[in-house]
Amino acid sequence: MSDLQITVKPLPFLRLAALTETVGSQPEVAAKVGPMFDRVADVIVASGGEPGLPVAEYDMNKHGVRIRVGFTYDGPAIEGVDILELPAVESAVTGTHLGAMSTIDQSWHEIQQAIDERGAQPQGACREVYLDSESDDQSTWVTELQQPITERSED
Known about the structure:
By secondary structure, the chain is an alpha+beta fold. The protein has a single domain (about 5-150), classed as Multidrug-efflux Transporter 1 Regulator Bmrr, Chain A (Alpha-Beta Barrel), CATH 3.20.80. The protein has helices spanning about 30-45, 105-120; strands at about 5-10, 15-25, 55-60, 65-70, 80-85, 90-100, 120, 125-130, 140-150. Strands 1, 2, 3, 4, 5, 6, 7, 8 and 9 form a nine-stranded antiparallel beta sheet that branches. Strand 3 (about 55-60) and strand 4 (about 65-70) form a beta hairpin.
């Protein structure tokens, strides 16, 4: 078991400059995310802007995994990226993953266990907010995992 601190909290509205791609299965995601972040950052910088906080949103469905990758952004529209609005969420199970992306699946498993223990259900796309990901050494990275939930209704 890791030292993942699980909390339940609301999530704020986020406005992102982002790109969206769909892959056929979960194992294909990792190869897409880094290059997508690089492309979005390049477009923002070329427009004279500064990339904000990096955020990825993942939505798994019968067609595969929709990946949305971008940076918080307050400016005008930019050619080459989409401006997306992620709505505020009333309740999400969150945890802070410390370290490399190669071990993030374990942290996501713990998030799912916490949801199950609450008797809640995942609701919609999950988010990863990269609080500290500047270093080439991923062992120092800090990533908040966020899964919106629907609480079990009491009868």
